[in-house]
Amino acid sequence: MMQIISKKIALFIGSALIIGVIFPAIAFGQANFCANMTARFANYYPVVQQRVANLQAKIADSQTRITTQRAQKDANLASARTLADTSKITYYANLEASATTDAEKSAVQNFETAVNNAEAAKRTAIDSATATYRTGVDAILAQKQPLIQAAAPTFEAAVKAVVDKAKTDCANGVSSATVFANAKAGLKTAIAQFKDVVQYGGMINTQMTVLKSARNAAYQKANSDYRVAVQTAANALNLAFGATVQ
Amino acid sequence: MNSNTKIAVSIVALIVIVIAGYYLMTSPKLVNTTGNTNGTTGSVNDTVKAFNSSADQENTIILSEEGESGVSAMTQSVNDAANAYDANNF
């Protein structure tokens, strides 16, 4: 009998501990959610707003950078090519001046033709690779960037809706625990929906890396082909001049 | 010096000039370390070096940035916005 009474007392004390100590510890945040809501959201929502604003600014900046840097690059490349062409004329003139026999003169002409052809091929290959790369980048951005751009304010609005609903529910006397649960679920949904957009960012990076690798491989081949062609032409010219390279 | 001696000296001098001229015309032209071919400024090696140098300059330009860093910054901002707050910590 005493053992049964002892067991009941132990059960009572255990239950009291669970209900009185452990459960309030778990529920403390929920119970005070409405009271602390303003402070919680004051730390959260502005961060969301700022980061969405940053994202929109980066999208705009990205397009500006692409346009500006492509134009700058094209201008620099055009200048370099003009300079190379001017320099080439001088070197050709010097070679022509050093050719005395008909065979040497013919060899110089062949050298010039070979170099001109190699250079034209190199430039065509480079320009083609650049155009392919840019078209690819533009296509990726045109497809994915608007989705990101549109999703950002949607995410911000979804978060704001959660905040507004929590405030209204608290004001209307809905229990803190319920408001907390709804707010947490609402934010999870908003973030989960926005995280779908994150994969678009990953896709852009991946596809750009693939395009860049293909472009750079084409650049490398074009330059390698050019150097081989020029050296071959130079060897033939040296032979015609009867030159021996020391 | 009598006239026969003068004629002999002239012939020898002429022979020396002809031999020297022939040697200069037919001997291989040596490209020195600066790349100039026997005094001509249009050295083939210098020309090749100059053309390759021009190609290198073009390479530096074509491999330069054309907005990629801006795109990376944008995609990073997507992640930043998504991670503005972890709802699990709410």
What does this structure look like?
The complex is a heterodimer of chains A (246) and B (90). Chain A has 246 residues and is an all-alpha fold. Chain A has 4 helices and 1 strand. In chain A, helix 1 packs across helix 4 and helix 2 runs antiparallel to helix 3. Chain A is rod-shaped, with a radius of gyration of 36 Å. Residues 12-28 of chain A have low confidence and may be disordered. Chain B has 3 helices and 1 strand, in the order H-E-H-H. The model of chain B is unreliable at 23-42 (pLDDT under 50). With 90 residues, chain B is mainly alpha-helical. The termini of chain B are far apart. In chain B, 22% of the residues are buried. The chains are: A mainly alpha (246), B mainly alpha (90). Chains A and B meet through helix 2, helix 3, helix 4 and strand 1 of A and strand 1, helix 2 and helix 3 of B.
